[in-house]
Automatic annotation (TrEMBL):
Keywords: Membrane, Transmembrane, Transmembrane helix
Pfam families per the UniProt record, alphabetical: DoxX_2 (PF13564)
Localization of this protein: Membrane
This protein's GO CC annotations: membrane
Name the UniProt record assigns to this protein: DoxX family protein
InterPro entries referenced in this protein's UniProt entry, alphabetically: DoxX
The UniProt record lists the keyword Membrane: yes
Superkingdom field: Bacteria
Amino acid sequence: MAVFLTLVLGSVAARVIGWAGVDYVDSWPRAVAVGLATMFVMTGVAHFVNPLRADMIAIVPPRLPAPALLVTVTGVLELAGALGLLYPPTRVAAAVCLFLLMLAMFPANVYAARMPSPPKSMTSRLGLRAAEEAVYLAAAVVVAIGGGQ
């Protein structure tokens, strides 16, 4: 829920700042880019901080090799994507890449939801996790379509 709230509150706060006259966030797609970047900084950092890192390693499906390396790589990609969202010339490309990254990582969330004892930091209800994922994907689409304004 913290990730979801970070996206929503970050986007709304950025848009309010835009209404106050800051051109950088003078549209919803630009504000959502800031909210999404804030969200990905939070989740990207979590890839490197225990106990969250250990929890993420634990939910990598067993058929994938080198879970710790995969968690490190996805954390770096999330942080790079967050930076890309904040730099207008790369914003659209970053949104598209993060959309694809979220799709690629979603099977780990399905696996976690089906674990008998998933890590406490992971959303264990698949329906809720899928609904949150839909919002994150939609946010990336909003940025990809309108972020070049």
